[in-house]
Design a protein that fits this description.
Elements: H1 6-10, E1 14-23, E2 32-37, E3 41-48, E4 51-58, E5 64-73, E6 75-77, E7 83-87, E8 91-100, E9 107-117, E10 129-131, E11 140-144, E12 160-163, E13 169-171, E14 176-182, E15 188-189, E16 199-204, E17 210-221, E18 228-229, E19 234-238, E20 242-243, E21 248-256, E22 262-264, E23 268-271, E24 274-276, E25 284-285
Parallel strand pairs: 10-23, 15-20
Antiparallel strand pairs: 1-9, 2-3, 3-4, 4-8, 5-7, 5-9, 6-8, 11-12, 11-25, 12-21, 13-19, 14-16, 14-18, 16-17, 17-19, 17-21, 21-22, 23-24
Length: 288
């Protein structure tokens, strides 16, 4: 079964850039200014005396990694630039404070920043054992496993495709918080034109990694972003949307890495045949 997983999580990233602010000595009445926002992330400045505080608020149901840089004149940052911070879900944090170098001159700064979904410092718990993402009384063959020649290469080499008919209940292989979902697409096929039309669920795990369940059917998402789900809970319905040569479920565990890209990870999966890090193409597996 063919699919292209890498584009899915890249759709979750967002960014905003360059706002110029000028603060002059003796300027009054400016307590707070919103620099930028993207519905789920906003940044404000708070003036404290002759200093400027840059504050970020993450309204997403998942963590983000935020990078802030500054240029301009007569400014002295209290941290080395650029500044990179991780904000947990629904959190607010002072990212950086900026002082004047010369108290008798105006402070002018140009603030550029960007954010991506996930914690760039996340470290996978390699001792954790995942379950197969379908019900205990079902068995399905692996259509593409690690290092699959069609699409499981590079950063996505540790993905797994399970061949299953459309309408199969999908279970959480590990508990966590639902980060992002998509269920509005109905098309699918083995053509690049369908690459950005897959329905999916992303679940953020306790260690900051993400479980990806992709190619779900239209209206096949049964959980909402921000909801905590348990291992083995039904979360969706399989389909054949997006870049796919036939009905199947794409599953992977990944983390964000430097530069804003994502890398899949090898994980332990429990089956009736034992616990494996790599499931074999063409072999049928049953949960245990």
């Amino acid at each position: 079964m063919k699919c292209s997983p890498g584009y899915l999580i890249t759709k979750l990233a967002a960014s905003w850039f360059i706002i110029i602010l000028t603060f002059l000595l003796g300027l009054g009445g400016l307590a707070q200014k919103t620099l930028a926002q993207n519905n789920s992330v906003n940044v404000t400045t708070n003036r404290v005396g002759n200093s400027l505080k840059i504050v970020a608020y993450n309204d997403n149901p998942h963590s983000i990694t935020l990078t802030v840089n500054i240029s301009g004149s007569n400014f002295k940052p209290r941290k080395h630039l650029p500044v990179q911070v991780v904000l947990s879900a629904k959190s607010k944090e002072t990212v950086l404070s900026v002082d004047k170098k010369n108290e008798n001159e105006g402070l002018q700064v140009s603030i550029s920043s960007e954010w991506v979904v996930g914690n760039v410092n996340a470290s996978h718990d390699d001792s954790y054992v995942y379950r197969l993402p379908y019900q205990n009384n079902q068995s399905f063959k692996v259509g593409q496993s690690h290092n699959g020649s069609f699409s499981h290469t590079g950063n996505w080499q540790y993905s797994i495709d399970f061949m299953m008919p459309t309408g199969t209940p999908i279970l959480a292989a590990r508990g966590g918080v639902v980060a992002r979902t998509e269920e509005g697409y109905s098309e699918g096929g083995p053509s690049k034109e369908y690459e950005d039309k897959a329905n999916y669920i992303y679940i953020e795990h306790a260690d900051g990694t993400f479980g990806e369940y992709a190619h779900l059917q239209r209206n096949g998402v049964l959980v909402n972003p921000g909801t905590r789900v348990q291992k083995g809970q039904v979360i969706g319905i399989s389909g054949n949307t997006g870049f796919s040569s036939g009905p199947h479920l794409h599953f992977s565990v990944s983390r964000v890495i430097s530069g804003g890209s994502y890398r899949s990870l090898p994980v332990k999966i429990k089956t009736s045949k034992g616990v494996f890090v790599r499931l074999q193409k063409g072999v049928e597996y049953t949960p245990r």
